[in-house]
């Protein structure tokens, strides 16, 4: 048969791809077209899901020309780009974001009105892709938004989990996890490319062979799976740019299919297929604590090998000189999850591309950079040599050689300092032989960064001091940020309108311009308008919580919000002890209910399913809420609400309504926090410790506009060194004793003293995160909060100053820092 070369120069193929007409009519026409031709239904017989799909596809159609142009440009202009490697992307709903980015919100809204369709019903149809646990996954989502908005070439690589973070429900106050089947109705935002699937191998053994007189190693794998890419648009904000997020889904290879075919044992054969597809089945619901499960390592290698292979073979031109790789790409490692990519790139360069080891290592060291997101030593990922060697034998060999040469260099520098060598070895010996992934990342990475000033300093001084000594200049800081498009413009349209009225447009992509609001803090009319926006946001939240969970927030209450993963180090217990203290004072008659400042405390938090203490704390919060909310003596002046299943969608409603932001981790434990930034930017005042990015928030907004409490990190260290005895604090503080005793008495468990006993005794006899030591300082700070809130006008002034001075926390700024200090990937104009 005649061979027809692809005629990409056909005049019609060369014509620019144009989207539908930018008018209400144009939108309606395309919407109906999608409904009819893509969904195969007439409007009259369509379901809400049909209409949502057709609507989303129409938005896509408007973005398509830009996406194709960016993909074309990426190939033609061989500019350096960022491959962001992340096991998590906590995206949140896409619809409004994509409408905003494409400037279509008004046209689309009018188009739906014209069709008699309720756009709110369409919005409600979208299930948020919860492909992440918390801060780390949400950060990745903010970063790719900023890169697209700045026009920086970027591919986000990750895993298309079939089940994202679990849906949390409460049964008798206790957390029950339900699978998050977000794909049941399909997703209109993804573009599957099964034809571009990549084969990813595992297991087997290694062998050496003679390659024209050179002895080389090679990997003879034992089994493989297919990695099928799904592409998602990442549109920049009103700049005509669309980057790509590429998530991999696992599929059985035909060898599995063959086994099904050949095997007499049909059930066993199908089981084998399921085994392969399990790899991308579910997101591990652990946040900041690695699990060391084999499937997890499979996931990590699966997506990283697919991504690196995809970039080298698909994005780079066929004749690319691999020695120039560092001019074309930086692979950013989002924590240690993708660090297996280091030996993978070495394997590709040495075994497949036949480079000399030293040349390959020089390239690799320029192509990776590593971000650390934690300070908890137990959160640093390690893989047992046994497991790693079984799953990825060639990679283990490569890691051994990297370590050997690294330790050789350490010896050269410091002599035979065995202690130091043991401490710096990528292979740890206790409690079992294992690979320390953070060390591997640090040795391989061109740069290593922490995520807030304090965190980066502690990384250098406490977590990896030997490495900082050995690699001067390698460690740097990039303080986290959040995207103002989603967390100000979309989440808080009222405030956004007010800001634009005051300082004009442009601030959404140049957030430091919020500084211009400082003057408005002194304008009584502006303060009034600002307070009205906050009040409206509270009513809107009230509507959401009523409809979603049947919860009521009372008029005139201060909204005191603590939303984040449930972790002992974040200290939800400290907040709860304050609630119990207030409750105890009222019911014992020490304080008249009418003298208590009306407050509604809102918690939102998921606990890792295997984290027993965290789940017990959830149970206690619910139990306290149950009692406090129904006790008539409280006269409704204190309420505790705990809407289940805190997620991005709920955060977007909660944060703009908050008065007080709780950021109360033990100093030296929270790497950065990003919720803290979202609250400040939405005009909540922070009560917080000197921890993570709180430090920078306080420096920027000023001491007068921030409620600082608790020990500083050096004070924490000093107390540990002296010997911390929580019981002494219990004995020494009457309020604390009363609160603890009230919990221990069974007051929140129907008289049963055993239910919450483990929490009480943990605090009294262990208290790793020094809740009791910081209690009195916290309660005193809350009294300052009460006093400040009484003067509503002064409070509003502080809130405005929080907004005005938090522009630094835009993720656009974080991206500029990464670009200047680490990536060197300027925007493509
Ligand atoms: C989190 C940190 O706990 C949080 O302080 C930080 O703001 C966030 O990363 C983004 O940098 N770390 C994690 O979520 N870590 C893991 C392994 O999940």
TrEMBL record:
Enzyme nomenclature, EC number: 2.4.1.1
Reactions this protein catalyses: [(1->4)-alpha-D-glucosyl](n) + phosphate = [(1->4)-alpha-D-glucosyl](n-1) + alpha-D-glucose 1-phosphate
The UniProt record lists the keyword Transmembrane helix: no
Any one Gene Ontology BP term: glycogen catabolic process
Modified residues (N6-(pyridoxal phosphate)lysine): 678
GO cellular component entries: cytoplasm
Recorded family membership: Belongs to the glycogen phosphorylase family.
Biological role: Phosphorylase is an important allosteric enzyme in carbohydrate metabolism. Enzymes from different sources differ in their regulatory mechanisms and in their natural substrates. However, all known phosphorylases share catalytic and structural properties.
Name recorded for this polypeptide: Alpha-1,4 glucan phosphorylase
Provenance organism: Microbacterium laevaniformans
Gene that this sequence comes from: malP
């Amino acid at each position: 048969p005649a061979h027809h070369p692809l005629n990409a120069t056909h005049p019609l193929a060369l014509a620019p791809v144009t989207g539908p007409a930018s008018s209400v009519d144009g939108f309606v026409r395309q919407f109906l077209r999608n409904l009819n031709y893509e969904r195969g239904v007439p409007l009259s017989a369509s379901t809400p899901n049909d209409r949502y799909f057709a609507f989303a596809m129409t938005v896509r159609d408007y973005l398509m020309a830009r996406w194709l142009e960016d993909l074309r440009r990426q190939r033609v202009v061989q500019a350096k780009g960022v491959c962001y490697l992340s096991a998590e992307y906590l995206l949140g709903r896409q619809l409004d974001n994509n409408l905003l980015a494409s400037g279509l919100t008004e046209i689309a809204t009018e188009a739906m009105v014209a069709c008699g369709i309720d756009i709110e019903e369409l919005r409600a149809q979208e299930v948020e892709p919860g492909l992440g646990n918390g801060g780390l996954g949400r950060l990745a989502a903010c970063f790719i938004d900023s890169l697209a908005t700045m026009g920086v070439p970027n591919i986000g690589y990750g895993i298309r989990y079939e089940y994202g973070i679990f849906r949390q429900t409460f049964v008798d106050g206790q957390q029950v996890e339900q699978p998050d089947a977000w794909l049941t109705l399909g997703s209109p935002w993804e573009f599957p490319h099964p034809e571009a699937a990549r084969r990813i191998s595992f297991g087997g053994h290694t062998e050496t062979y003679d390659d024209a007189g050179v002895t080389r190693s090679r990997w003879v794998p034992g089994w493989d799976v297919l990695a099928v890419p799904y592409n998602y648009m990442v549109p920049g904000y009103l700049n005509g740019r669309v980057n790509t997020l590429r998530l991999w889904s696992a599929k059985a290879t035909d060898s599995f299919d063959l086994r099904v075919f050949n095997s007499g044992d049909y059930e066993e054969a199908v089981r084998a297929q399921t085994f392969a597809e399990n790899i991308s089945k579910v997101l591990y619901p652990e946040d900041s604590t690695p699990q060391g499960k084999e499937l997890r390592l499979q996931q990590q290698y699966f997506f990283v090998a697919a991504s690196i292979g995809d970039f080298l073979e698909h994005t780079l031109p066929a004749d690319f000189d691999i020695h120039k790789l560092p001019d074309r790409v930086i692979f950013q490692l989002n924590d240690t999850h993708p660090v297996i990519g280091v030996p993978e790139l070495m394997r590709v360069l040495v075994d497949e591309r036949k480079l000399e080891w030293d040349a390959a290592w020089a390239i690799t060291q320029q192509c990776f950079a590593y971000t650390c997101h934690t300070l908890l030593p137990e959160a640093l990922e390690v893989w047992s040599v046994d497991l790693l060697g079984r799953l990825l034998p060639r990679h283990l060999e490569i890691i051994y050689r990297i370590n050997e040469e690294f330790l050789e260099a350490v010896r050269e520098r410091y002599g035979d300092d065995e202690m130091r060598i043991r401490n710096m070895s990528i292979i740890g010996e206790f409690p079992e032989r294992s690979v320390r992934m953070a060390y591997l990342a640090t040795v391989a990475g061109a740069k290593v960064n922490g995520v807030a000033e304090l965190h980066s300093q502690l990384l250098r001084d406490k977590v990896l001091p030997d490495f900082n000594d050995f690699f001067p200049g390698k460690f740097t800081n990039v303080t986290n940020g959040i995207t103002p498009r989603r967390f100000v413009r979309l989440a808080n349209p009222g405030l956004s309108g007010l800001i634009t009225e005051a300082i004009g447009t442009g601030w959404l992509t140049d957030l430091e311009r919020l500084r211009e609001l400082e003057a408005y803090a002194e304008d009584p009319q502006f303060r009034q308008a600002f307070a009205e926006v906050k009040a409206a946001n509270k009513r809107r939240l009230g509507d959401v919580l009523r409809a979603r969970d049947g919860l009521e927030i009372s008029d005139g209450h201060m909204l005191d919000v603590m939303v984040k993963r449930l972790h002992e180090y974040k200290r939800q217990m400290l907040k709860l002890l304050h609630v119990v203290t207030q409750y105890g004072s009222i019911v014992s008659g020490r304080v008249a209910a009418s003298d208590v400042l009306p407050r509604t405390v809102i918690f939102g938090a998921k606990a890792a399913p295997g984290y027993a203490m965290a789940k017990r704390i959830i149970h206690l919060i619910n139990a306290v809420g149950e009692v406090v909310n129904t006790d008539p003596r409280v006269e409704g002046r204190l309420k505790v609400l705990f809407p289940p299943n805190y997620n991005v969608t709920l955060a977007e409603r909660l944060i703009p309504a908050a008065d007080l932001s709780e950021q109360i981790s033990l100093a030296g434990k929270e790497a950065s926090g990003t919720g803290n930034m979202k609250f400040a930017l939405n005009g909540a005042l922070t009560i917080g410790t000197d921890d993570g990015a709180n430090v920078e928030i306080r420096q920027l907004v000023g001491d007068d506009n921030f409620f600082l409490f608790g020990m500083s990190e050096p004070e924490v260290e000093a107390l540990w060194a002296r010997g911390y005895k929580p019981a002494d604090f219990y004995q020494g503080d009457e309020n604390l004793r009363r609160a603890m005793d009230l919990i221990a008495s069974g007051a929140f468990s129907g008289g049963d003293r055993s239910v919450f006993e483990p929490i009480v005794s943990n605090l009294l006899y262990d208290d790793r995160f020094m809740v009791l030591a910081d209690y009195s300082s916290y309660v005193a700070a809350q009294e300052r909060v009460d006093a400040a809130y009484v003067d509503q006008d002064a409070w509003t002034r502080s809130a405005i100053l929080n907004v005005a001075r938090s522009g630094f926390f835009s993720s656009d700024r974080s991206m500029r820092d990464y670009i200047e200090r680490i990536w060197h990937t300027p925007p493509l104009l």
